[in-house]
Input
Amino acid sequence: MKPSPVSRAPRACTTFRQRCIRASPKTPLNLPRSAQARLKSSSDARLSTTIRQQASGEAAPVLSVRDLSARYGNVEALRPVNLHLGKGELVAVLGPNGAGKSTLLRALMGLTPGSGQVDFEGAALPRNDPRAVTQRGVVLVPEGRGVFGPMSVRDNLELGAYLLKGRPGEFNARLDRVFALFPRLRDRQSQLAGSLSGGEQQMLAIGRAMMAGPRLLLLDEPSLGLAPRLAAEILETLATLNREGLPVLLVEQRAPMALRIARRAYLMAVGRIVAEVTPDQITSPHDLARYYFAHEAA
Output
């Protein structure tokens, strides 16, 4: 099946909104005149989304991104991006080099200045303040792992738990969880991080993020530079965390591997999201190529 491009709300939603406005005063959808006027306006996407969720019983998204843009000097790295992540979802972001995938994660974390609205668990995330974003429970595993080579494995993990100062019980519980996920880290906890293999360093990077107690985990190319077997092992660990209820937003170039564990995926090109697809819509690299070529020709 050919992936459908991301578009605005379908025409049926307009009819539904009109029904909501005419709802009986006894229903929770009854709104004051000012709210009805805003609802009729197509620009009030946030309000219409909330009403659709209330009517359908759908949970509000854990992460909601609206019109997120970012620039590097005069270069527009992210054109207005819109996406959402539901409770307990694992969603992949796929695309070629230079598509803006890493910039998207950096903008979400506040590492790259951007404009737009980013809500997490129903409240706006701080802009340009990575520490405050992390304190809210959004944690990034960066591209290239970013482990501190001259420090031990244990010290790297302790850095991830800097918010747990004075809470040894919770620290030990998180450490045990990381060692259960990655037994090799337990065996090497006194070893310098720089002496680990690439796969072990990636395990350490994810373990350090888990020490922060994330309620949303962002990962930037976790399989980068890894042999296929190790890459599959890393991604299966992410699937395990997701099955336990942790929402995951995964940027990945190995599309087939990512689509095996993702519920759905956003396709990015030249700084924008060009499609939202499900794994059954992308059955081969040719499906991705055909879609990107179609986008470039449009």
Remarks:
- The longest helix spans residues 228-243.
- The chain has a mean pLDDT of 82.
